[in-house]
Amino acid sequence: MKDYTEHAILADDRQLGPYPEHLLKRVDRPTVATPGPTERRVLADNGAAHVARGDFGPELAERVGKFIFRYPLGPVINEVRSRISNNALSKDDPPGGPGTPPLPKLEVPDDPKMLGRNIKALAYFLGADAVGICEAPLASFFADVRDWDPEDSKLKNAIVFLKRNDLATTMATDGQDWIVDATAQRTYLHLTMISEIVLSYVRMLGFQAESSDSRNSKNQMPSLIIRSGLAESCRMGIALNPFFGADFKSSAILTDMPLQADKPIDFGLQAYCSRCGICANHCLGGAISKGNKELYNGYDKWVFDAEKCAVAYAKQDNGTNCFVCIAMCPWTRPNTSPEDFASWDGSVESLAAMADARAEELRNNGFVRRDAPGSKWWLKLADKD
């Protein structure tokens, strides 16, 4: 065993990232019950695809396919993102791309915990807000990914990255603005940089790795996010982080690197969402359940109607997409910077109290958000048509 005294942070349990994830309660299974049976979903069979193929009429089919182009910042950021993606590289190419000279080799710890913390530290160094590791469950893989059989693949481990949307922009928007898609594209741009550098690093260390992100989607991301201990499932049908809510985007890489998996977390969200319902009451398309959990594809969860959501943002006339549920969620609030959790002791009650305070503020304001008046830095469209 090599002497890693100077690298003790890779062997201990101290905080690595900006948020105190190490204080969260860990459980053996995700907090959403899975009585089963659970079938793998089909990537091409989703709400937006149904609208795009004309199930709700030709006008909405055209609109849903062009939402990214309604405001110029979205497609501009997306184009830059496409140029820094490694997805076009062969797995046999050197980490720096064709023509890169041989790179110096690094000493690789043989301890899965040390390897995992090294990967996490790199991702935080690159700007990730949260990083988790899990063994990717078979049910998380889409059934129609080309040239990919998860049962035969050796890439069993998933490294999952979360990046927050820009907080100042989130606080200035009502969730229906022209900046909404550009906000998402900006976050995905950061994630592409982070995940693709980590992917190349993993290959540099001598292991196999492939991307699983919004451009090259192999998995249902909420499943990986929840399994890797970064969030719980919420009423909105997406994953929600205890520190910054659902105001984030995600990406992952799959690898055969031996890594110590993180356990799922329990911060009381199932009980909180059961008594809240603000997101459902303000969903423009009525896509979020106002009732109790139901058994859906083997999961006991609040069932989200993706078709209604896609129709709602296809009809959007005052923005590029819809962000209202996340904007109205009481876990989306101004006081969510790392400094706000510097003295947090791991109490789930204090987390719920922060969300309760936000919910009360929303109610007192008639559910009109007044976080950053006069702070819309983005320009209006000269001609919406």
| Biggest β-sheet strands, sense, barrel | 4 strands, antiparallel
How many alpha or pi helices? 12
* Class computed from helices, strands and strand pairing: alpha+beta
Q: What is the first-to-last residue Cα distance?
A: 66 Å
Strand order of the largest sheet: 1-2-6-3
How much is the radius of gyration in Å?
Answer: 21 Å
Q: Give the tally of β-strands.
A: 8
Q: Can you tell me the residue ranges where pLDDT is under 50 for at least 5 consecutive residues?
A: none
Molecular shape: globular
List descriptors:
two-stranded antiparallel ribbon, four-stranded antiparallel beta sheet, 9% strand, 12 helices, 385 residues, 31% helix, alpha+beta, globular, 8 strands
Folded structure, characterized:
The protein has 385 residues and is α+β, with helices and mostly antiparallel strands. The protein is built from twelve helices and eight strands. It has helices spanning 47-52, 58-65, 73-83, 112-125, 167-172, 180-204, 221-227, 269-275, 278-282, 306-314, 324-328, 348-364, and strands at 130-135, 157-164, 209-212, 232-233, 239-240, 248-255, 294-296, 299-301. It has a four-stranded antiparallel sheet, with helices on both faces. A hairpin with a 2-residue loop joins strand 7 (294-296) and strand 8 (299-301). Helix 2 (58-65) crosses helix 10 and helix 3 packs parallel to helix 6. The mean pLDDT is 92.
